């Protein structure tokens, strides 16, 4: 991969603006918090270039770890997980994907976690945005309940550094590519990798 992680994050931010993934106005987020902007991650991660960039960025965050599987809360994590699995295969270090449902399905195998995840595996949890961390915490609990170890939590956008603080307090390694500023702007915080 020739682009630096910061270059990839910079292009993701440009593309988010181009594709209308970053909206300004008055919004109520899923957490109930009021916001002057909304980040619609799926407009970015379901775009062909956006998916490629997400795969490259998150793979770059994971390739020097022990992580054997990457997953997160459905629906936002789904395209990121697929992009990482595909990129990892192309790069020659396959990382499996999994998805954590909001609740166990009421039929069939009644699974909460979908995909080839094996208990006691080192995993990464991903999402497009972190505001309160509720969805990420739900996914973490689900994988820890089957004995997996969460090695890293990674998101595209961390609102006001809330994820960094929340997960550091809980002893998790958290990384974001982008972070909002107090004036509603967005800055690149991707590690230099």
Q: Look up the CATH topology.
A: Rossmann fold
Q: What is the arithmetic mean of pLDDT?
A: 92
What topology, given as strand order, has the largest sheet? 5-4-3-6-7-8-9
In angstroms, what is the radius of gyration? 16 Å
The level-1 CATH class: Alpha Beta
Q: What structural class do you assign from the helix and strand content?
A: alpha/beta
Low-confidence stretches: none
Order of helices and strands: HEEHHEHEEEHEHEE
Q: What brief labels describe this structure?
A:
Rossmann fold; two-stranded antiparallel ribbon; 6 helices; 193 residues; 35% helix; alpha/beta; seven-stranded mixed sheet
Structural write-up:
The protein has 193 residues and is an alpha/beta fold. Helix 1 packs antiparallel against helix 3 (48-62) and helix 3 (48-62) crosses helix 4 (77-90). Helix content is 35%, strand content 28%. It has one domain (5-188): Rossmann fold, CATH 3.40.50. The chain has a seven-stranded mixed sheet with strand order 5-4-3-6-7-8-9, with helices on both faces. The termini are close together. The chain is globular, with a radius of gyration of 16 Å.
């Amino acid at each position: 991969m020739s682009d630096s992680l910061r270059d990839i994050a910079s292009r993701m931010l440009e593309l988010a603006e181009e594709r209308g993934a970053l909206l300004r106005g008055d919004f109520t987020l899923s957490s109930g918090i009021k916001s002057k902007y909304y980040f619609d991650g799926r407009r970015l991660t379901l775009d062909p270039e956006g998916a490629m960039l997400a795969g490259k960025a998150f793979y770059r965050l994971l390739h020097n770890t022990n992580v054997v599987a990457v997953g997160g809360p459905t629906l936002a994590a789904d395209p990121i997980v697929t992009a990482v699995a595909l990129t990892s295969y192309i790069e020659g270090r396959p990382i499996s994907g999994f998805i954590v449902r909001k609740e166990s399905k009421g039929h069939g195998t009644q699974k909460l976690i979908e995909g080839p995840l094996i208990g006691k595996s080192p995993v990464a949890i991903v999402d497009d945005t972190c505001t309160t961390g509720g969805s990420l915490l739900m996914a973490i609990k689900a994988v820890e309940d089957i004995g997996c170890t969460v090695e890293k939590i990674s998101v595209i956008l961390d609102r006001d550094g809330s994820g960094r603080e929340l997960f550091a307090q809980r002893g998790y390694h958290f990384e974001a590519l982008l972070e909002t500023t107090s004036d509603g702007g967005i800055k690149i915080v991707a590690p230099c990798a």
